[in-house]
Inverse folding.
């Protein structure tokens, strides 16, 4: 059993501004809809890709919805673009593929199924950044989809990414965040929003036992943060027959969504803000 470093953010709250006078606008998707989308997982990667497309279309992302073919892979990446006032980017991603054990609901339909709902939450207000919501293919084969995506962006476009927020394996416990490679400002902003909303957040480093799509961006010096729910007790669910819908704590899963739907517009205001 791997050892985990676990430190709550409670001690940090007194050192951080709790959003101050910042006004963050966002919509809220009902819990029943979040749960419906979570339960819409399919039994193959190809079917999941098509389901993710349909969920984005339901959410209103159609004209700016594309499938990105990935070299040597049958199933493409899915990319939904929410335009902003500048060419700066905040990218929110999560892989939809899974291994042939269990149903792959935790790892990682739980992350990819939230992307359309986060699009819904952010589209109601003008934005400075463009938001890219990306469902990555073939993460389980070595982050193939995200590595391809990063390579295709090229150096100049990668410089436009102010932050990458990775969603992987949500809902097995209250929201966790990986600290090992995350920039301190992204961590502090997450703690500030969690404190303001009175939602739980704690640090749980799992990087030493597994990489995720955030690494594809961090390897290219893009600021990235990975949000998950894994603990020493829940980590063994991954890649096992235990990875079923019943492994998700629906209350914890919805609270993760509530945190993210505020965190993303907060980043939009704070990152690259005019001085």
């Amino acid at each position: 059993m791997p050892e985990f470093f676990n430190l709550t953010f409670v001690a940090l709250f007194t050192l951080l501004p709790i959003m101050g006078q910042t006004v963050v606008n966002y919509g809220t998707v009902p819990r029943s809809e979040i749960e419906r989308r979570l339960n819409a997982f399919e039994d193959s990667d190809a079917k999941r890709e098509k389901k993710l497309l349909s969920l984005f279309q339901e959410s209103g992302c159609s004209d700016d919805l594309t499938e990105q073919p990935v070299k040597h892979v049958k199933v493409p990446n899915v990319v939904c673009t929410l335009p902003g006032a500048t060419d700066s980017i905040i990218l929110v991603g999560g892989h939809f593929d899974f291994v042939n054990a269990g149903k792959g609901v935790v790892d990682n339909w739980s992350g990819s199924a939230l992307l359309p709902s986060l699009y819904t939450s952010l589209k109601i207000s003008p934005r400075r950044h463009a938001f890219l919501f990306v469902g990555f293919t073939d993460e389980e084969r070595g982050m193939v989809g995200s590595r391809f995506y990063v390579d295709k962006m090229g150096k100049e476009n990668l410089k436009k990414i102010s932050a990458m927020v990775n969603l992987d394996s949500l809902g097995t416990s209250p929201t966790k965040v990986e600290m090992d490679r995350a920039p301190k400002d992204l961590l502090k902003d997450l703690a500030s929003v969690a404190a303001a909303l009175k939602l739980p957040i704690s640090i749980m480093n799992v990087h030493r036992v597994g990489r995720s799509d955030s690494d594809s961006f961090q390897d290219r010096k893009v600021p990235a943060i990975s949000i998950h729910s894994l603990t020493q007790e829940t980590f063994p669910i991954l890649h096992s027959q235990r990875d079923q819908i019943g492994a998700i704590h629906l209350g914890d899963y919805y609270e993760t969504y509530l945190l993210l739907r505020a965190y993303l517009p907060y980043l939009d205001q704070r990152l690259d803000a005019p001085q």
User: Anything to note?
Assistant: Residues 250-270 form the longest helix (21 residues). The chain has one domain: 5-268. The longest strand covers residues 89-95.
